[in-house]
Amino acid sequence: MDTTTKKYDRFDWTLTLLLLLFFLTSCLAIYSAQKTGQYIGQNFLSRQIFWYIVGSGIIAVVMMFDSEQYRKLSWYLYGFGIFLLIFLFFAPASIAEERNGAKSWFFIEPLGSFQPSEFMKVFLILALSSAIYAHHQNHPSRTLQTDFLLFVKLGVITALPLGLILMQPDLGTSLVIIAIFTGIILVSGITWAIILPLYGSGAAIGASILYLVIWKPEILKEYLGVKTYQFGRIYAWLDPESYPEYGYHLLKSLSAIGSGMLTGKGINGSEVYIPESHTDFIFSVIGEEFGFIGGSFVISLYFLLIYHLTKTALDTNDPFNIYISTGVISMIAFHVFQNIGMTIQLLPITGIPLPFISYGGSSLMGNMMAMGLIYGIRFHHKTYMFASKDRSFGL
C-alpha cells in the first residue's frame, strides 16, 4: 500500500473544477432568469451562492468519512430519511403547507423550505449499497435463490421511500428513486435470469399504461382514480399545440430554445416568458440566451462529470464504493436526461431540476452530499500492490 501519498494529491481536483464550472453556469443562468416575468425584483442569485457555500461545507464533512464508517451509518441515515418523510404527512400546516396539491416541503423560518426527499435519494444509495455488500458477505456462493433474495431485499428497501414520496405526490422524485434502484441493481451481481423477466414485465406494464392513457383513458379514471390533468401532461407532451392549457410550459420552452439558434440572444436577452425558468426550466433560459453553443457546453459538462464519476467507480477496489458511485451516476444522469429532455419535448414534463444549475437549496445540498461521497471515495482510496484486477463482483 502506498503510504506516501499526500492528502493534497488525494483530493479530487478534477471534480472541484467541474463543480466550479457548474457554479458559474448556475449563477449566470439564474441571474438572467430572475430578470424576467414575475421574478423581477427577486434575488435568487444571492441565495444560490449561499446554498453553494453551504453545500461546500457539506462536502467537507461528508468526505471525511470512509466507506467502513458509511456502512455503519447507512441504516441510521436511511431511518432518519424515512422518519422525515412520514413526519411530513403529520406535520401541521404551519411548517408543512400543501402547495400545488403536494405536501413535499417543510417550511422553517428563517431557514426557508426544506425537501426531505432530496436527501432521501442519497440515503437510499447508501442503504442499497450497504445491503448488497452485506448480502455478498453472508452469501459468498451465489445461487438463483440468493440472487432473488437480494432482489427482494433491495425492492423492499426502495419501496418504502418510493411509496411515501408517491403519496405526497411527487412523481418526478419517484422516478429518480426508480432510476437509482435500476442502476444499482445492474451492478449488484444479480443474475440476468432474474433482471430481464422482471424489467421486461415492468416495460410491458408501462407500455400498456401509455396505451390506455392514449386510447382508453376512461379505464384508468374509473379503476385507478387518475385525474384529468394527469392525462393532460401526456397529451401535451405528444401534441402541445392541441392542448395549450397543459402544454403551455412546453410550448414556451420550445419557442425559447428555438429562438436562441446557434449563439443565442446574449445575457439578459430573453424575450420568451417561461414560468419557473429559474428552477425546472433553467435550460430553456440557457438555450435562448446562449443558443446551441451554450446548451452544448452545459451538456458537455454533464458528460465530463458522469465520465469522472464512472472513472471513480472503476478506480476503487471496494465493491461498496462501486455501488455508491453507480447510485450517484444513476441519480445525476436521470436528472439531466429527464430535465433537458422535457424542455425539448423528448420526454413528458415532470418537476425535476437540472443538477447544480437550477435554483433550489434542497436539491443543491442533496447533490453536494452525493458529491461528498465521491470526494470521500477518492480521498480514502488505497492502492494495494497485489490487489485483484477482477471488478466483476459476481456480475
Automatic annotation (TrEMBL):
Keyword Aminoacyl-tRNA synthetase: no
Spans through the membrane: 49-65, 77-96, 119-136, 148-167, 173-193, 198-215, 290-310, 322-344, 356-377
InterPro entries reported for this sequence: FtsW/RodA
Main localization category: membrane
GO cellular component: cell division site; plasma membrane
Record keywords, A-Z: Cell shape, Membrane, Transmembrane, Transmembrane helix
PANTHER family xrefs: CELL CYCLE PROTEIN (PTHR30474), PEPTIDOGLYCAN GLYCOSYLTRANSFERASE MRDB (PTHR30474:SF1)
Protein name as it appears in the record: Cell cycle protein
Native source organism of the sequence: Mesobacillus subterraneus
